[in-house]
Design a protein that fits this description.
Number of helices: 11
Order of helices and strands: HHHHHHHHHHH
Distance between the termini: 40 Å
Structural class: mainly alpha
Strand content: under 5%
Shape: globular
Amino acid sequence: MTAERAPLTAEALARLLAWLSPAFPVGAFTYSHGLEWAIEAGDVTSAATLHSWLADVLAHGAGRSDAIFLVHAFRAARAGDAPGLREVADLAAAFQPTRERHLEASAQGAAFLSTVRATWPSARLEALAEAADGAVWTYPVALGLAAACHDVPLIAAAEGLLAGFAANLVSAAVRAVPLGQTDGQRVIARLAPLTARLAGEALTAPLDAAGGAALAADIASMRHETQYTRLFRS
């Protein structure tokens, strides 16, 4: 069994749970990925419409692409390939379609990497981060780098990324629609098979397979930039 699909050790599980916890200081709760505009526009008004919106964003938008970026960042880091890691980081940053989405991905990535370096030190991570100095660390690339340097299996990191992404947007919807907490958890449960499938598919996807067609989500992000009343930064 390869390290990419190895079972989680207790130590690796503890690290991954800590990193993906809402208590980890990346500010994820302040972003909605354009969802706040979709709610304002009447596109997301219920648990059913929220599930449909998020399933599309995961399967056809940033969810799928972010999983691919994480996979390739992880592999470059495992190989000690700093130029390859920088290439993935640059591509992931370039893929952000709006100003707010770039802020969402890069601010969370920088905060994540800074906190991991301060609290979960790793000589390998330090060397790779310094070799790629000046890169814009989007969140999936930063998580892939940290997972590779702390022996978290790739499949677990990819599934964690997607599950955390879905859970954060459900949390935003619970506050903004509003939805009940139980309805929010039902949406997360319904999305779980999809996030697991997308993580598995990302393991065999080439880097140039990144891309998507969740155009409504991209337009929502653009419109959110000028939304009059906002709770979220994106």
